[in-house]
User: What shape does this take?
Amino acid sequence: MYTDDQLKAIACKFEIAGKIQQIKPLGPGFINDTLIVKTLTSDGNAGPRYILQRKNHLVFPDVPGMMNNIAMVTAHIKAKVAARGGDPDREVLTIVPRNAASIAEEEKALPHSNLYYKDENGNFWAMCLFIEGSVTYEKADSPALAYKGGQGIGRFQSDLADFTQELSETIPGFHNIRWRFQQWDEALKRDAASRAASVKEEISWIESRREEMLDFWSLVESGAIPRRVTHNDTKISNILFDEKGEVLCVIDLDTCMSSTSLNDFGDAIRSYTNTGAEDDRDLDNVAMSLDMFRAYTQGYLSERRDTMTETELDWLAFSARYITFEQVLRFLMDYLDGDVYYKTKYADHNLVRTRAQYRLLQSMEQQYDQMLKVVKDFLS
Ligand code: GN1
Ligand code: MG
Assistant: This one.
């Protein structure tokens, strides 16, 4: 835990305007610690607000490389937003660099040292501007919002379609199910928290779908499904909307790297269409809403239909099953490991998440024919 004074000292390592008034926690992130920094101008009025994040370097082994990815991607999108007459300060994240005077001589030699601060505990910090007047959701409350969310991710991907710089892979094998199964096999063998015997049924959910998931991923490996620059964590809480429900910008760019567009689509469907919560204890609350699926799909394809290949479109609906399956696997794997990856609020939180996401997966499987039809109808 950091004291207020320590947090203030960390915030001052970045180029902020005004005097820091208050720093407090923000949002429900599972990986990083997120804080909001309030400032006052010299005449005592409210100054700009900032997001200060402790980036989890156990999850992201190369924070400097990751921050450089984010800097490159946001600069690219800023140019696009400006070219279409939008507001580059609100329609894309703005990275706040280090206050130049605070960069020590020995830091200067390190790559991208203007983009992050490493404190004496070895923790990494980064900052961006808080976008005023933005709204976030944990749940899509209407198909209209889902449509806008789909459009927003479609536009984000289109803006990055001509991004050609090399991005570092911030979490190797992030949505690669072949790699996830390798980790899974090791976690099962280790059984670090001695929990495997108590979750035999849950383990069988994973094993029974191994082949179909690997078959999908081999299409990415063979190039039949192309790799593109994607976000990779498109749940609804990672989108800022304005007060009218229009997408302002996509946040949480830590996992922005080369993957398939389908993963962004699938991960969004996992979150927008769920009638319950990601960690619902009452499984009767959980199902995939076909109306939300239709709305998100239509919004997304309104931006992307002409730039996706036929194979991508054929597998679009399946990607929701793929990512939801992967999430079941990741939550259960963390439960087996003794809850070392995701932040948890109570003892069996990861198991509750596993079961709730599995119920969602089953609901997708049951409605798969209708999902395929939604895509087909839109395209015809
Ligand atoms: C994590 O960081 P956050 O809370 O936006 C996770 C995602 C999961 C999600 C589950 C880097 O996202 O992959 O889908 O939790 N991010 C990382 O809600 O693992
Ligand atoms: Mg997030």
